[in-house]
Design brief:
By secondary structure, this protein is of the alpha+beta class. It has 2 domains: 103 residues, 2-Layer Sandwich (Alpha-Beta Plaits); 124 residues, TATA-Binding Protein (2-Layer Sandwich). The protein contains 8 helices and 9 strands. The chain has a 5-stranded antiparallel beta sheet. It has a 4-stranded antiparallel beta sheet with strand order 2-3-1-4. Helix 1 runs antiparallel to helix 3 and helix 4 packs across helix 8. The longest helix has 18 residues. It starts with 25 loop residues before the first strand and ends in a 5-residue tail after the last helix.
Length: 269
């Protein structure tokens, strides 16, 4: 008996399902059986999935991993070694992905070791039910652990932001603001709104609706006794707007933000 492919629940970015079929989210699930199914070969394929397939425009969620060996019920389909799961915001994004150069590079690099490939494409018509897991943020967030106090991190972040030709439009101290409203909130959490005016102009002139994702934000917060600094990746946010022509700008901004975060965390060279 063939198992039904897993449909990952998406709760972080959408609340309702569009009535128009062309705007419905699409789940693309691929199951690879390998000729050489050693752990090394499986890890190489997963790394290839992440390298070539994880950042295509319109991608809402990406994941790849190995078969769960210990699950051996009668209903478990075990005729694969690696599974790939991608959720696209609509069918058009999926169709562009199929024609993308990186997709074809992935196929050329790994196809010789494929014993079989099975593809399951499905509409996402039921999701976001109360109590279900939220969408993991592993591909959406860049997160680093910082050294020093939150004030040390704040100082380094301001310096690094200026060095990358970004300006700080505002700083929101959530702990202070919530406490001032009578809400007991203990962890430090500061959100920095930053912007490079020239890059913002380039993006907004192409699509003013991207203003919903601007300005860029960097969060500095306490978690588990440590200070962490994170941001939503501009390349991931851009994917929600279906503007592949702006990917070079998003990649450039993302690289700068990563350098800012690394410097703020005390990791710059």
């Amino acid at each position: 008996m063939k198992a039904v492919p897993l449909c990952i629940v998406v709760a972080a970015l959408f609340c309702t399902q569009p009535a128009n079929a062309k705007d419905r989210m699409l789940s693309h699930d691929v199951y690879f059986a390998l000729n050489d199914n050693s752990t090394k070969a499986k890890k190489e394929l997963i790394a290839g999935c992440k390298k070539y397939l994880s950042k295509h425009p319109g991608t809402v969620w990406f994941a790849a991993g190995m078969l769960v060996e210990e699950h051996q019920r009668d209903v478990n389909d075990r005729d694969f070694d690696v599974a790939l799961h991608i959720i696209f915001k609509d069918k058009a994004s999926h169709d562009k992905y199929q024609k993308a150069a990186d997709h074809h590079k992935f196929i050329e690099e790994f196809k010789d070791n494929w014993k079989s490939v099975r593809v399951f494409d499905s509409w996402l018509d039921a999701w976001n039910h109360p109590g279900e897991a939220k969408m993991p943020s592993v591909t959406m967030l860049y997160v680093q652990e910082a050294t020093g106090s939150i004030d040390d991190v704040t100082k380094r972040l301001k310096t690094a932001t200026a060095a990358e030709k970004f300006g700080i439009l505002g700083i929101h101290d959530l702990k202070q603001k919530l406490n001032a409203k009578g809400v007991d909130f203990a962890p430090e959490c500061r959100i920095f709104e930053i912007c490079n005016p020239k890059k913002a102009k380039t993006v907004l002139e192409k699509d003013i609706s991207i203003s919903n994702a601007l300005p860029c934000r960097i969060s500095v917060y306490e978690e588990g006794g440590k200070i962490r600094v994170s941001t939503l990746k501009p390349t991931a946010l851009l994917g929600l707007f279906g503007r592949p022509e702006l990917e070079p700008v998003a990649k450039e901004v993302e690289a700068k933000m990563i350098r800012i975060i690394d410097a703020a965390c005390g990791k710059d060279k």
